[in-house]
Amino acid sequence: MIDKDILKHIPYGRKNAKSRFAIAAEIGITERAFRSAIERLNKSGEILVIADQKAGGYFIPKLPEDRAYKEAYLRQGWSRVKEESKKLRAMAPERYAKKSKEVPGQLTLDLEGGANG
Fold first, then answer.
1. What CATH number should be reported for the domain whose range is 3-92?
2. Using one digit for the tens of pLDDT, what is the confidence trace for 26-44?
3. Which of 14, 36, 42, 57 has CB atoms 3.0–4.6 Å from 19's, for a disulfide?
């Protein structure tokens, strides 16, 4: 089954959300295969499929009524990215340290009287 075929089984609107288990059973694939397909679809940028435990499962935001929820979902995602970035920078500071932009053959001026001063 092509990922886009899965979209036929995902409801529009938060109030119509369905569990991943129900959708996977309806389609005839495993729940894991369903989640992988949703991840690929979301990464494509063509459509956003939201998973919401409070709403009871997966849905495609129906605009304009789900706009606020879609924006909150995206803010939450960016917040997670920001927090992950902080964690990675703390674990490997040498990798993320700002490096000076040296140009090959460029002379440098030591104003603090280093080894040659």
1. 1.10.10
2. 999 999 999 999 999 999 9
3. 57
